[in-house]
């Protein structure tokens, strides 16, 4: 019984390590936009799978963060896109999606305070 639990735990760790890497959260607010003690900005994970982009943004703070997904495509004939802004309320997770027809060059999420 103990051996099977150990094998299950080892398999779970190996599976977690084999999952694709997702970009870590970055750039919540620029310096000067907020007071040093004021916390703001959803943490976003951006994942690119072939020509599709998915971002999950979780806002742990009391202020609403208006997030938007931006996608740059590799080829000149493939249109870049700026997604519609979505409000991530306190303790809320939102999903943003975008795509290119061929290859994704870059993808990021912008953040804006709501009035």
UniProtKB/TrEMBL annotation:
Keywords: Signal. Residues 1-25 form the signal peptide. This is Secreted protein.
